[in-house]
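stuck on this chain:
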Amino acid sequence: MLGTVAAQVVGVDGCMGGWVCVVLSVSETAAVLEQVQVWAHFEQVLHAYNTAEAIAVDMPIGLWESGRARMRPCDRVARAKLGKRACTVFIPPTREMLNATAYTSLRKLGLSVQAYNLIPRIREIDRLITPALQAQVWESHPELCFTGMVGTPIPYPKRAVQGHFARLHALRNAFGEGVYADLVALLETLPQTYRRRQVRADDVLDAFALAWSAWRHWRGQSEVCLGEPSHDARGLLMAIRY
């Protein structure tokens, strides 16, 4: 059960169908799952959860303007924390690259194909986010969230069997039996609820981890990867919070 003070927090992970959102009602000591919902557009996410206290999103926020693809200072800090799992922190595109319609020219500028495939999602956020909105909506990263839960990076990839169950175990310890039972039930019915190309099991686990991060942030316990310069040319904070 929740205590007398409750808030809404949201974890948002990009997926093939758009954005999968895990919505929690939280107190200082407990969390209850309100909703798991897939939205096609990030604007819908902002509208649906405009009163949420914290929205943690696994997508780069705050970008270099132009030039070659290169790590932001916060990416370097995040990679250092993740050790052998550093490869899960992609080098993001520059803002200029968000207008690209083909990968060929961007490959010459050092952008990976994984990061190129994220451009439609990054572009959505970049067009909507403001420095003021970052007080509510901020960048996170599931692997950092799981590291925060466990105390060390999970060494197995998330789509490997060992990685899947290691992340489930971490979420069980982080949330307790109530939310964990809801998560297991959701995973069992996922193939009937969504087509595989819309949402995968690992997307759901990541969104739960991001929701945990948002809850932790609301309680004033989050950690942040931050370097210098800390802001981009638009004044957006370049930080990864977990």
